[in-house]
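Box S1 | Example of a co-folding query
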Amino acid sequence: MSIIKRKIGVAVLLVMTVMGVKAQDAMPEPVMPHKPMELVDTLYLRNMLLNEENIIPSDNMYPEWRNSIVHYNSAMPDSFRINLRNSVMPTLNTKITDVFGYRPSRKRVHQGLDIKVKTGDTIYAAFDGKVRITAYQRRGYGHYVVIRHNNGIETLYAHLSKKLVKVNHNVKAGDPIGLGGNTGRSSGSHLHFETILMGKSIDPAAMFDFKNQKTTGESYIYRRPGSKYVENGKVKTAGPEPKFHKVKSGDTIARIARKYGVPQKQIFDLNGLNSRSVIRPGQSLRYQ
Ligand SMILES: [Zn+2]
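Box S1 (continued) | Returned holo structure for zinc ion
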């Protein structure tokens, strides 16, 4: 495709995004001998999106297929665009009980997001993919499943009461892959959900909004902290990954800001709050 056509296609995509029109709604009119320019673009856009669906990034990203080792060392790319279309929320439950990130109390990183579920609640595959690991870890994940997805990330579902998929089997987004539970190192039934890019956990909250039961967008661009990228012709440096604080009883914005050494305004801005906003225990607040 010529670069001009491509640019036109992107422009149409942008216009459609602004207008809130879904790409799949962009069906072409019946073919006419002299198609107006707009129609050609719509067709081109549709084909571009279809082609994109057929690209399977994971084929090129992972040289190995192993049925063990959840996390492993690998060089992270400076950036990677994760396609979030055709996703299904792993659980219908909306209550986050613990966030991703460093826990000073335990001096370790919590590598996933905890979502309150009841034992027996169905857990669903987030995207199409292939089951890489099904295992049991008495002192850790309990019954857990790892799926490698076509879009290049892997997802992990832990503390299950039952696994419903077999290793090396293909799954579709939304297929039941297990039942929620309280196995392994877990106090109270919950789903520990991880999103893993090339061996490293990244924050699931950047992609999945459990509270509102939707993804954060059509795609998410992971940028390695400190890496350089160009935006609108300017070189920029990727900032640190977002960090969250789980509000405890008695917490105030001022106290949270002091704890992490950030301005209160930063917390207000990142969470769309103002000085009159009320915060509640259990709520996740982004502070970085
Ligand atoms: Zn967890």
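The CA atoms of residues 244 and 286 lie 4 Å apart. Residues 3-54 form one domain.
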